[in-house]
Write a structure and sequence with these properties.
Length: 178
């Protein structure tokens, strides 16, 4: 589910990547936060530095006939060119250190915003729980759309990827135990 298409599923994929307790234990005895956030932050820094070249390379995918952009655009009720343009604009935001929570909320299909109670619950879920010390809750509380650094962006991503409340809402056919 590349380019955020996982968010368009009947049960949207809210995690940026799946980092279950089992996978996190694979790096034991090291602290996953220290290890993963630092390395992911370094990788994001390199991607951020080369964002112009990356976006130009990804633009090639927008013209790739083997990718069925038309099907996905039709499913979302958008024209193909607008759909592809929106997907690339999300990539640009991610490469510009956008807050991962704001990116996901922006990417969620409008059908979720139509149900006011469900939308508020979804936003609260994505923002995290400040009482539990979620990094993303602290970033969201500042009200900024962007992270202060690639390390902060990485910390938000790891926080989302390890949040049991978000992981518990993944597609039921995922079967992480296999």
């Amino acid at each position: 589910m590349a380019f955020g298409l996982g968010l368009t599923l009947p049960a949207p994929e809210l995690v940026p990547f799946r980092l279950t307790r089992t996978l996190a234990r694979a790096v034991a005895p090291y602290d996953r936060t220290e290890l993963l956030v630092h390395d992911l932050g370094s990788a994001l820094g390199a991607l951020h530095a080369a964002r112009a070249a990356l976006v130009a390379a990804l633009d090639v995918f927008s013209r790739e006939p083997l990718l069925d952009w038309a099907r996905d655009a039709h499913r979302q009720g958008e024209a193909q060119e607008a759909f592809v343009g929106n997907r690339l604009s999300v990539v640009r935001r991610k490469l510009s250190m956008a807050n991962p929570v704001s990116v996901v909320m922006h990417e969620l299909p409008p059908k979720y915003a139509q149900n006011a109670n469900g939308w508020e619950a979804m936003q609260a879920l994505l923002r995290g729980d400040a009482a539990r010390g979620n990094v993303r809750a602290e970033v969201c509380a500042r009200g900024g759309q962007d992270c202060a650094s690639t390390l902060e962006q990485a910390a938000c991503l790891v926080d989302m990827a390890t949040d049991a409340n978000i992981l518990g809402r993944c597609w039921r056919g995922w079967r992480p135990w296999l």
